[in-house]
Automatic annotation (TrEMBL):
Originating species: Aquipuribacter nitratireducens
Pfam families referenced in this protein's UniProt entry, alphabetically: AzlC
InterPro entries membership: Brnchd-chn_aa_trnsp_permease (IPR011606)
Keyword Ion transport: no
Major site of localization recorded for this protein: membrane
Protein name according to UniProt: AzlC family ABC transporter permease
Compartments where found: Cell membrane
Topological category with respect to the lipid bilayer: Multi-pass membrane protein
Keyword Membrane: yes
Length: 232
């Protein structure tokens, strides 16, 4: 049979599929318009909101900082809350060790894109090979970064025209997509039990600890349950 070997054809198809999925998921960055509006309504200037999206690029942390600002909290409190929520991305980076680039410059750039969505889609495409997982990671990250920052600017500079950002409902898009990505894994009994346990720990901790700690506590439970030692 002429043409490329079957394995190469399959790999090319897997990479193409990963890129399509990444592009579609990356478009969810349009809910950055909600952050831009919320940030300005909380007291940040439009320019500050835009810069925060560029350098902070992790929605949960950004909304946490804006929430503290809206409540009149100190800057150090807002930064601490945002940092605690962002620490979860370091756990994702450990999971993506084999997906991220090997060389330092590219690895540093990739680190800025390690967030919920890029991790979820990369892990979902891992069974199809490293190339597919990398394609999913980079496509999701770059498209999401572009749409998030563009729409943050739209929301920040057009906040008066948008009205109450809470009525947009765009903030529900990302969690819904993330759940959809995880759903196949939740069909396995062990994973489902771990998910419920991690969620319960996070819910209980949220009543006792500052923002960020519940996420880390839930993540720690999941990591412990998935470790080779506890699988035995």
């Amino acid at each position: 049979m002429s043409g490329a070997p079957a394995t190469e054809v399959e790999e090319a198809a897997a990479v193409a599929s990963a890129r399509r999925d990444g592009f579609g998921l990356g478009l969810l960055g349009v809910y950055g318009v909600s952050f831009g509006a919320v940030a300005v309504a909380s007291g940040l200037s439009p320019l500050q909101a835009v810069v925060l999206s560029v350098v902070g690029f992790t929605g949960g942390s950004q909304f946490a900082l804006a929430g503290v600002a809206a409540a009149g909290g100190a800057a150090v409190t807002g930064v601490a809350s945002a940092w605690l929520l962002g620490v979860r991305n370091s756990l994702y980076a450990v999971r993506l060790t084999d997906v991220l680039p090997d060389r330092a410059p590219a690895r540093t750039a990739a680190a800025h894109l390690v967030i919920d969505e890029t991790t979820a889609l990369a892990v979902r495409h891992e069974p199809h090979g490293r190339a597919a997982a990398r394609a999913a990671f980079w496509t999701t990250g770059l498209v999401l970064f572009a749409t998030w920052n563009l729409t943050t600017a739209v929301g920040a500079f057009g906040v008066q025209a948008l009205g109450d950002p809470a009525t947009l409902g765009l903030d529900a898009a990302a969690p819904a997509a993330f759940l959809a990505l995880l759903w196949p894994a939740l069909r396995r009994r062990r994973t489902a039990v771990l998910a419920v346990l991690a969620a319960a720990v996070a819910a209980v901790t949220s009543a006792l600890a500052p923002a960020g700690i519940p996420v880390l506590a839930g993540g720690a439970v999941a990591l412990l349950g998935l470790s080779p030692r506890w699988r035995a």
